[in-house]
Write a structure and sequence with these properties.
The complex is a heterotrimer.
Chain A lengths: L4 H13 L10 H19 L4 E3 L2 E4 L10 E7 L9 E8 L6 E6 L7 E7 L5 E9 L4 E8 L13
Chain B lengths: L6 H10 L22 H8 L6 H12 L10 H5 L2 H4 L9 E3 L4 E3 L1 H12 L10 H12 L15 H12 L9 H5 L6 E2 L2 E2 L10 E3 L4 E3 L1 H11 L10 H13 L10 E2 L1
Helix pairs in contact in B: 3-7, 6-7, 8-11
Chain C lengths: L3 E4 L3 E2 L4 E8 L21 E8 L2 E8 L8 E7 L4 E9 L3 E11 L1
Parallel strand pairs in C: 2-8
Antiparallel strand pairs in C: 1-3, 3-6, 4-5, 4-7, 7-8
Chain lengths: 158, 260, 106
């Protein structure tokens, strides 16, 4: 089958977009849609404020046993005093059908800004944790996780 | 290359199978599925506070003390404190049942108590109640060595289970031993192939997002090689369970385990 | 039926930061899965978790389908006084479960 010039340009465009993570397994259109939803969800929380990298430590295993249950831990450097504390921690992921994972609301009574939980990841990709500080600033950390499928599924190959 | 590329493998296995322990993984090399998991999954199993299997164990504790059936009896009424009465039980099941003249597994044993001693209906396989009771009983053997009793009566059933383990089946025409005796440690679709020792059942499987029995896992294996799985409670499954527990003898029971 | 396992230290010193671990029993059906016949399985998740310490809210979480089934939530709080720490999970289909734990603070 010959490729038309238009098809060639679309394919070239899509492959350049996906070039950053060669492990991408999703259909490129679907991946783009989910990325847009992810950016919109982050914007909803952050607004126009800048999100700086740092002060947040996101712990995820780089290669997980099963995407159904991925252990996640977030710790934010903060004195957690009335004057200076973490108000909230928001976790997002870019490849799930829905970008929000969990949002927790803290305060000085927390003592430390820490959270541990287990999340679901549909596909290999980025997870980001954004901390909202009492002074209105936003800080973040992100991690790349590789997700593999189970070899023997109950319903057979999908 | 012959039309059946695995044919020479099966032939070689048959030649080696002349003795009772032929082609078996030596005890020193036996490794639980625990060792093939990531660090975080292992941590999930090790801590009772974060092990989701404990939700079923605690349910089982409540059910153990609940009176039921025509006889109005609770498990506790006959068996007292399971921390003493049930230690070692899960480690030696499936066990030969003289009344039935064949081995039965722990789930079937619990159901026999339900029908014959408590005068109530048997619990459905994979139901929340049966899983809870099985998990609670199995938890009492945690840390103990797996030790099914194989006497003259049980031997033919053990042999039937072994034959099933070495028999090719399904559209993929694979036998259990090909992956789990010969290719363990290698990769299949990104997962590491374990040795397939039932050291932690019933267990919380991340893939199921719930607790399940060994038979549920075996059904997954059958479906994996595109074979028709037996129904829950089928004698063929119990024979295979017996063989698998015998094959894992000496290894430590980890129930309720966590597995990917 | 056991709905949740909560782990709170029985005792603590005033001002000490303690770790609270909670494990709720819930299938967390995402609403994105389909049956073998292609029918969409409706969403059924926990949506909110609130923790109070002698009545004052100390931790709150909004949960989404991306949390694993039987969700674990671990967080910290400052041990301020003896009393009751209460946990409440709410979710789809009117789901609501409460658990409590007591703590002695010296």
């Amino acid at each position: 089958m010959t490729t038309t010039r238009r098809q060639f340009l679309l394919l070239a465009g899509a492959s350049i977009g996906a070039a950053t993570t060669a492990r991408a397994q999703l259909d490129p259109n679907l991946a783009a849609q989910r990325k847009a939803a992810f950016e919109a969800a982050v914007r909803k929380v952050v607004g126009d404020a800048p999100v700086r990298r740092g002060r947040v430590k996101l712990d995820l295993p780089p290669l997980i046993d099963n995407g159904n249950s991925v252990p996640l831990a977030v710790a934010v450097e903060s004195p957690m005093t009335a004057a200076d504390h973490v108000r909230a921690i928001h976790v997002f992921t870019e490849k799930n059908p829905q970008p929000n994972v969990v949002s927790v609301h803290l305060g000085p009574r927390a003592g430390r800004a820490r959270l541990a939980t287990r999340i679901r990841l549909a596909d290999t990709g980025t997870v980001i944790a954004i901390a909202q500080m009492s002074d209105g600033s936003f800080w973040s950390d992100s991690a790349e996780v590789v997700v593999t499928l189970s070899a023997c599924l109950e319903e057979g190959l999908i | 290359m012959s039309a059946r590329p695995g044919g020479w493998l099966a032939a070689a296995a048959c030649i080696l199978l002349s003795g009772p322990v032929a082609a078996e993984i030596p005890l020193a090399e036996r490794r639980s599925g625990y060792e093939f998991m990531g660090r975080e999954t292992r941590a999930m199993q090790d801590d009772d506070v974060v092990n989701p299997g404990m939700l079923w164990v605690l349910d089982g504790e409540a059910l153990w003390n609940r009176k039921s059936g025509a006889a109005g009896r609770a498990c506790a009424d006959c068996h007292g404190d399971p921390r003493t009465s049930m230690t070692g039980v899960a480690a030696r099941y499936p066990a030969f049942d003289a009344a039935r003249g064949r081995p039965i597994n722990l789930e079937q044993r619990i159901n026999l108590c339900h029908t014959e001693r408590q005068g109530t209906v048997a619990l459905a396989f994979e139901s929340r109640e049966l899983l809870a009771l099985t998990a609670y009983v199995a938890r009492q053997s945690r840390g103990m060595p797996i030790a099914p009793v194989i006497d003259e009566r049980a031997k033919p059933f053990l042999e039937a289970g072994r034959a099933a383990f070495f028999r090719r089946q399904g559209q993929l025409n694979l036998a259990c031993n090909q992956c789990h005796d010969e290719l363990w440690g290698k990769k299949l679709v990104g997962n590491t192939i374990p040795q397939a020792h039932p050291t932690g059942y019933p267990l919380y499987r991340l893939e199921w997002q719930g607790l399940g029995s060994l038979q549920r896992r075996l059904r997954n294996c059958f479906i994996g090689v595109r074979a028709e799985p037996y129904a829950y409670g089928a004698p063929e499954f119990v024979e295979l369970e017996l063989y698998l527990m015998w094959r894992a003898r000496g290894m430590t029971l980890e129930a309720p385990a966590v597995r990917p | 039926m056991v709905n949740a396992i909560v782990n709170v230290p029985a005792q603590a010193k005033r001002g000490e930061v303690i770790e609270i671990r909670t494990l709720a029993r819930h299938v967390m059906e995402t609403g994105f899965r389909r049956t073998q016949l292609g029918e969409l399985i409706p969403r059924d998740i926990l949506t909110s978790f609130v923790c109070t310490y002698n009545g004052t809210e100390i931790f709150r979480a909004e949960l989404h389908p991306a949390l694993a089934a039987n969700p674990l939530l671990t967080f910290t709080t400052v041990a301020t006084e003896t009393g009751t720490i209460a946990f409440r999970w709410t979710g789809d289909k009117g789901f609501a479960v409460t658990e409590t734990a007591t703590i002695t603070v010296t």
